[in-house]
Amino acid sequence: MAKRPGKSSGLTYADAGVDLETYDSFISGLGAMVRRTHGPRVIQNPGGFAGLFRLDYNQKLFKQNYVDPVLVACCDGVGTKLKLATEMNDYSTIGIDLVAMSVNDLIVQGAEPLFFLDYIAVPKVYPEMLSAMVNGIAGACKDSGCALIGGETAEMPDVYAPGEFDMAGFAVGVVELKKATDPLRVAPGDVVLGLASDGLHSNGFSLVRKVVSHAKLDLHKVYKDLDPEQPLGKVLLTPTRLYPAPIVRLQRAYKVKKIISGMAHITGGGLAQNLERVMNPQVDAVLSRKAWEVPPVFKFLQKHGKIDDAEMDRVFNMGIGYVLIVRPTFAEAVQRKLEKLGEKVCVLGEIRKGTGAVKLK
Description:
Elements: H1 20-28, H2 31-35, E1 42-43, E2 52-53, E3 69-77, H3 81-88, H4 94-106, E4 112-122, H5 127-144, E5 147-155, E6 166-176, E7 191-196, H6 205-214, H7 232-236, H8 244-252, E8 260-265, H9 270-276, E9 283-287, H10 296-305, H11 309-315, E10 320-326, H12 331-340, E11 345-353, E12 358-360
Parallel strand pairs: 4-5, 9-12
Antiparallel strand pairs: 1-2, 3-6, 4-6, 7-10, 7-11, 8-10, 9-11
């Protein structure tokens, strides 16, 4: 007589801590969030193992074709800002950070973001938490003009303890070779423009969390000398500003003239170190500290952590999130265009003959 099927006594994936049913349910619900980032260059591939993106496209569909296209790629994470998100139980903004940290680097090369992929590793699939993350990623991709065409959610209970997780992002863009930025183009007389940051962005959070712990600050408390309406934790979680939309639109306004000599995304290392990366050894950047107002969050952390000025400059963006070096003839026009696009812009200084140094006075 044949045995009736019954419950297996063997081990299952669920016994190992991985719930495939919850995972599959979460993944199947992501479609709407992902599709809202898609444009006509994305080729739909339901059930595919990879995303498809059209690079050589039909001229009738687009206003701009590339003659000598070069792919530009970069990847990044969010760092220990993730720990703060966990402490605040707020995962609504770190997906924005994840996208911004890659696409802001990508546009420095003069590139247009094309598509983005994410990787999220968790001890267990928590649909509400992960949905908040992916929603942030999708929204940032849409705002940056790039498609979210894939990703991976890895459930690894033996690697990540409850409450811990990690995420990484990977962006690909394209630039016309003759329009790509080149440090050799930076010349004496060029004007250095700074675009305001939205706060800390996603750098220096190991030091930020040390200040919070050392000074016994309460993440859920409202500090009136910082922000009279938001608790400290919410202020610190303010997402990284997305610069692709205004920068790409600016470059499209100058299809022939090379008005931009160089650009820099101000991340770890601060204004000086990141600007030095896009200059050549024959020039210096001479900048004035009086050109912009340092946002309250930096002053707050410096006071409570008793951090010296040099360390603040080395770790944080101090209120300048992105820098453009432009030809002097076009500096005022560029500033006006960026301000009309919603950016707060200041003239930081100018390029002079030198040895590749940034002099902040």
